[in-house]
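User: Before I run my own analysis I want an independent prediction to cross-check against. Here's the chain; please return only the structure tokens and, at the end, one sentence I can use as a sanity check.
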Amino acid sequence: MMGVLAGVVVTAIVQSSSITTGLCILLVQQSILPATAAIPIVIGANIGTTATALVASIKMQKTARQVALANLCFNTFGVLLFLPFLGWFAAKVVDFAGEPGTAVAWAQLIFNLVMTLAVLILLRIFQRRVELFDSTQARAAASAVLG
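Assistant: Structure tokens:
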């Protein structure tokens, strides 16, 4: 859980999940950080990367705020879905990949593929939920996330 939170915070600050992921892979390859600790950080980076869109959408049209909020919901849902199994998932990916740095990249890829498939299957339900937010609620949600 702390790794996921670290990934959210670091990525929100640097505004790039690619930087967070690349840094984690580098630290793993240098044996500074174990892959099983880096994987939760990379998974959490998926939530942190939504901060940029949330901030940018605050003064934009309702559709832009809905897209930014949908991105936040999608990534948060994915992380919450993986959270109970994250330790097991990280260990299995490390075993599968062989090389720890590659395991971090595989974990990010697998997470994104699983979430893409989930959204494609649940797209209509997800769309209706996001559209329920009016512009005031979307602004409040963006402000709450960004503090």
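Sanity check: The helical segments are 2-14, 17-29, 35-48, 50-57, 62-82, 86-97, 100-131, 135-146.
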